[in-house]
From TrEMBL:
Zn(2+) 1 binds at residues 72, 74, 170, 286. GO terms for molecular function: deacetylase activity; hydrolase activity, acting on carbon-nitrogen (but not peptide) bonds; metal ion binding. Keywords: Metal-binding, Zinc. The record marks 172 as: Transition state stabilizer. InterPro entries: Deacetylase_Atu3266-like, Metal-dep_hydrolase_composite, Metal_Hydrolase. Zn(2+) 2 binds at residues 170, 203, 226. This is Dihydroorotase. The keyword Transmembrane helix does not apply. The modification N6-carboxylysine is found at residue 170.
Length: 406
């Protein structure tokens, strides 16, 4: 069954001259054409397909990968004070699937679904926040003060009613959120995850609880987001015991997610981990309105940062496409097979210098950047490009592909 968010188009779509990467699908031509039906299904993949009457997308040797999937973003625009519109980090940026990471709790999930997820061009899923109010007033009004913040019965009911959209539970395990409540919220989330057979995504940050203790509670399929944060007491490179716990967690099948954000990614931590062979399983932005024009920008720039720190190009693509899909139990194999829904990103890897920062303000110069050209959603080809950030106080600019004024 095809995702009903692929908007039906009147004509077939033909992608010509693209180089496949990240599919792990044997027998693909080094340069290929992809024919997509008007209803979004792949009709043919071959070295050369006649254009006929199909709409034509000329890749001109650009790469084609499974659609970029941002495992951690915040898109409950209007429902929280931190969220952006999906199109600000979605298809016009090359991202075909977005996972909202706990913007909504049980009390306001219905609005996220009706007003954001269902109308969106992109595929959007959600981790439901353990706290009933979610991130309504993020870091100003905590969603996890004490047990009055959590309604277990209603949380279970909302998840059961929205299994097609809700892919897990989100809990922020950090002193700035839960004060001295320590591990109790995570323990509750883990209990619910066992009852509902869903993973937990846990935000790690300022202790308590300790990052060490968080890892000890997680099991295979759970997700640690902000895995390479540089916060005091929460950095895996300032504590050898914690680093070994992180290595052990990865071996146990716990997913290490970048979750860059405005305060949660360090070049030094990422570089040190990569040099020791500890790679993130998934790359995500934690994109929100406080990180959009500061440290994060978009998915392509975040991917480029990991490339610059030593991850291989194909590893970066997998961590940004099929790995996050697997993390939320969505199809991730044989994505170029006939009959499969067409969901791809067409991009270039460009040479040139770009100065960027991490969440601590450390600067780095990227010499290669991922540059999205199209997001393919069914038979729809959305023109894409990297976000162009603006400095505080400067007049906004209008994005030519999504129309959004920064």
């Amino acid at each position: 069954m095809f995702d009903n968010r692929f908007k039906p188009q009147a004509r077939n779509l033909l992608i010509k001259g693209a180089r496949p990467v990240g599919f792990a699908q044997p027998g693909l031509p080094p340069v290929l054409d992809v024919l997509v039906s008007a209803d979004g299904a792949i009709l043919d993949v071959a070295a050369d397909i006649a254009a006929d009457t199909a709409k034509l997308v000329e890749a001109k040797g650009a790469f084609i990968s499974p659609g970029w999937t941002d495992l951690h973003a915040h898109v409950w625009y209007g429902g929280t004070d931190i969220s952006i519109r999906p199109e600000q980090g979605g298809a016009p940026r090359g991202v075909t699937t977005i996972v909202d990471a706990g913007s909504a709790g049980e009390a306001n999930f219905h609005g996220l679904r009706e007003f954001i997820i269902e109308p969106a061009r992109e595929n959007i899923y959600a981790f439901l926040n353990l706290g009933s109010i979610g991130l309504v007033a993020c870091n100003r009004v905590t969603e996890l003060q004490d047990m009055r913040s959590i309604d277990i019965d209603r949380t279970i009911a909302v998840i059961k009613e929205n299994r097609d959209i809700i892919v897990g539970l989100k809990v922020r395990a950090s002193a700035v959120i839960s004060g001295g409540w320590d591990l109790v919220p995570l323990k509750l989330a883990k209990k619910l995850s066992r009852v509902l057979d869903l993973p937990v995504m846990v935000h790690v940050g300022e202790p308590p609880p300790l990052y060490d203790d968080v890892l000890g509670l997680l099991t295979e399929g759970d997700i640690v987001t902000h895995c390479f944060n540089g916060k005091q007491g929460g950095s895996i490179i300032e504590d050898e015991d914690l680093y070994k716990l992180a290595e052990d967690a990865a071996k146990r099948g716990i997913i290490l997610d970048v979750g860059h954000g405005g305060a949660s990614f360090s070049f030094d931590v990422g570089k040190a981990a990569l040099e020791r062979g500890l790679l993130p399983n998934t790359i995500s932005t934690d994109l929100h309105n406080r990180s959009l024009d500061t440290s994060v920008w978009d998915m392509a720039t975040t991917m480029s940062k990991l490339l610059s720190l030593g991850m291989g190009m194909e590893d970066v693509i997998i961590a940004s496409s099929t790995a996050p899909k697997r993390a939320i139990n969505k199809p991730a194999d044989n994505l170029l097979a006939k009959g499969k829904p067409a969901e791809f990103t067409i991009f270039d890897l460009e040479q040139g210098d770009l100065v960027v920062t991490d969440s601590q303000g450390a600067r780095s110069t990227l010499h290669q950047t991922f540059e999205p050209r199209y997001a393919i959603l069914g038979a729809e080809a959305v023109t894409a490009h990297r976000h162009q950030p603006i400095a505080a106080g400067e007049p906004g600019h209008k994005c030519p592909s999504c129309g959004w004024k920064s």
